[in-house]
Amino acid sequence: MKKNMIAGNWKMNMLRHEARELTQNIISGVAKVKHDLDILLAPPFTSLDVVRGLIEGTKVKLSAQNVFWEDRGAFTGEISPAMLIDAGCEWAIIGHSERRGILGETDSIVRKKIKASLNDGLNVIVCVGETLEEREQGKTIKIVQSQVESALMDLELEDYSKFVIAYEPVWAIGTGKNATPEEAEHVHATIREITGNIFGQDSDLIRIIYGGSVKVDNIKELLAMDNIDGALIGGAGLNAESFVKIVKIAGE
Ligand code: PEP
Fold this sequence. Notes:
single chain
């Protein structure tokens, strides 16, 4: 059974005491959600232990926002999949557009991170999405297709539930503009076709989640689409009330 996923990406926000307060409020808010959802929090590395301590025994799971592809060694500033698992993470976000755009992360780096994470038992959320310029040039499908095909190249997936694709149009991230449910669905359906062509019908179990200015006001319409299996949430996830409302709507 495929569960919807709601993941809060806190980006470079939240000091440890703020992370504690936000997590406590989220946990108490989502405690009564009965529907079986994957609820993830992705705090900065410095707050992983704070969040880990609080979510123990709850339905909330821990994700990292990034990961490196080697296990250990001379890679100053980097953190390996094994280290993240050791810190309590079940998931890692890979290839977020801020890392691709600001830090120069390429498709081949993204692929290395995916392989290393899955090999070590860390589940992945792989982000793809076009820039505004690419959209205006009518290149959305071409760009997303090449990012997805690159991410899936030579990949053997044993458990499709451990691999999530987040379609995040770059122009919709943190801008207040979001793709309409129909626009998002068109891209999600294309991604579904690509995964189906590569892995066969069972790969329907791969969740394809949407990200880009998801809020309380638009989550319901997005999740009503056939191929939208959840949301990756930035800004609205920094506020416990709105994150909890989104989770509750997703769980209806
Ligand atoms: C994100 O960080 O992945 C994101 C979608 O941000 P926002 O919800 O703020 O657009």
